[in-house]
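Dissemination and training. As part of the outreach component of the grant, students in the summer workshop were shown how a complex can be specified as a set of sequence lines and then modelled as a single object. The example used during the hands-on session is reproduced here so that future cohorts can follow it. Participants entered these lines:
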Amino acid sequence: EPTVGGGASRGGREREVNVALDDRELWVRFQTLTNEMIVTKNGRRMFPVVKVTASGLDPTAMYTVLLEFVQVDSHRWKYVNGEWVPGGKAEVPPSNAIYIHPESPNFGAHWMKEPISFAKVKLTNKTNGNGQIMLNSLHKYEPRVHLVKVGTDLRRIMTYPFPETQFIAVTAYQNEEVTSLKIKYNPFAKAFLDAKERPEGYYQR
Amino acid sequence: EPTVGGGASRGGREREVNVALDDRELWVRFQTLTNEMIVTKNGRRMFPVVKVTASGLDPTAMYTVLLEFVQVDSHRWKYVNGEWVPGGKAEVPPSNAIYIHPESPNFGAHWMKEPISFAKVKLTNKTNGNGQIMLNSLHKYEPRVHLVKVGTDLRRIMTYPFPETQFIAVTAYQNEEVTSLKIKYNPFAKAFLDAKERPEGYYQR
DNA sequence: GACCTTCTCACCTACGTGTTAAGC
DNA sequence: TCGCTTAACACGTAGGTGAGAAGG
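and obtained this result:
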């Protein structure tokens, strides 16, 4: 199996576990513009969606899959004159921003049979009922996927960082090019899409 | 803990596991009329929904929860002059009609922390992609819930039958009183509900 | 004032209902 | 004809979008 994505599996006698990011081209387009993700009181989904393909797991072992949001630098960001620039010191990261994939725990075979999608994770800027991830607005984050084998010690957690998916949390979009890309590819934003601007093969009705 | 519902747990040294049916009053109203459930090519949800409350599980052990549909007698049924009457011999039951609860496998603590709902099971009369349950139209079924402790042998499956939830599979409703009760209580059928006929406390907007 | 956040809104996606007419 | 099944349909539920005005 070729190694794709941010694989960082541990060695030993086991076969190599690999976790690759899906829709990488789309993520890179956002990354080029500096990606932004909306946070709201009640929680907002991500677009694009973090979706990964796993291989090399033990089919009969049980795993829990996590999505963590790591604050990647130590400052607040500001959008000035069409550019993101680092500002003052960062605020304290809210206590661990970790989302448990709702199909957890499950067998290795389950996680490998189709891509693992984090479509339903919701980002918020308020402390809410659980399931939602609290982030500091105007701070930069990197999503990381963790695989935890149930019953094993925490030192054996496998971590897969995805730098392509970094984004700045915002309460309103700053860069209008980011807004346009979101509208262009997110079906839920179709109301704002001019007919002439639709991407090729765009699902209609 | 009082014993409620169709509990049929096994003895031994373990504490008593109990599984009780939720919304029993509603189920009994349908049962009195002889309940019917629609089957379609693409699968139809059940209404009412099979929903159970479990207790006495080992919080740290892993369980898979199943919903089985057992053909309860050996004839086809006909609706004649406002009555269901047994007809010819039954058709062969389609190979095991067992739905795996989508949160399976999971810890005992998970199954006990809130009622276990089978809202998303879909009944069909055609062989389809998995996840859907194929039943013979005009045959009578009884839903049964099974708890399977992961890794233990199959002789230790715990089975909980719910006779109140028996129904005849149909491709179109036969008894119009059944239709009326469905419309009265299923929010998705609100389009067919006259304002004056709404049950007390019915959710509006 | 400038910056950031919140709220309501129209407009979508996605899909669960029984009805009805047509099909077999 | 009769009994049963299918498919299209209008009308709901449920909830995901960015826009834009209002709030702090």
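Residues 40-41, 78, 125, 137-138, 170-172, 187-193 of chain B lie near DNA strand D (CB under 10 Å from a C1'). Students were then asked to discuss how this feature might be tested experimentally.
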